[in-house]
Input
Amino acid sequence: MMDAVVIRKALWSEITHVLLDMDGTLVDKYFDDYFWRHLVPEKYAEKHGITFGAAKEQLFVRYKAREGTLNWTDIDFWSNELDLDIPALNEQVRHLLEAHPNVEDFLTALRIHKKTVVLATNAHYKTIAFKMKHTELGKYFDKVIMSSDMGYPKEDEGFWINAQRAVGFDKDRTLFIDDTREVAESAARFGIKYVLIKHMASSREDAEYTGTLPYINNFSELLP
Output
C-alpha cells in the first residue's frame, strides 16, 4: 500500500487534480465540535427549559438519526428542526474558527504548480460561505462541489460519479484528502488512486490513528 511519502512525490509530478474536504481537513474541527456538542445544546436547553444534559441527550439522538444523509450538514434543516437560528449561532463563535496549520502554504503551492483545486464537501452552501469568508481560503479553489448539488453525500458512490462528471478529473491523476474514514474509503472504492486521511481533525483531540489508509498529521508533510 502506498504511503504519504509516495503520494507527496506523485502530487508534484503526475497528479493534476486535488480534491479537498473542508471541515476537519482544512478547517479545525474544534469549531464544529464545540458548536454542535456545546453551544447548540446550551441554546436548545434554554429554549425548552430543560437541563444541558437532557438537551445533549435529545440532540445527539436526533443528530445520529441524520448522520450520513444530506440533512446531516444542512443548516437550514437544523434551523427548522430545532427552531434555532443556526447561521446566527455560528456567528456568535466565529472567533473559534481556524484553518489547520500550513493549509495556506499547501494551497499556495498547489496554485503555483497549476493544480486544479476543488473543494469537495458535504457542507451546506451557507456553511461554506461562512467558513471561506472567515478563513479567507475561498480564493484558492477553482471549483466547489457540494453533496447537495451532487444529490448524494460523499459516503455514497453516487457523489463521486457525479463529481467526476462535474469536474472531469482522471481518477489515476487525482488526490483526495478527507478526515473521515468512511468518506475516504468511498473515494478509494470509486477508484481515485491517491487518497489521504487528514489525522488530527480537531486540534483538541489527540487520538491515535488506527486506520489503514495513508495519512498526514500536518499539511507541511505534503509541501514540495
In short: The chain has a mean pLDDT of 96. The first strand starts at residue 17 and ends at 20. The chain has two domains: 4-28+98-222, 31-95.
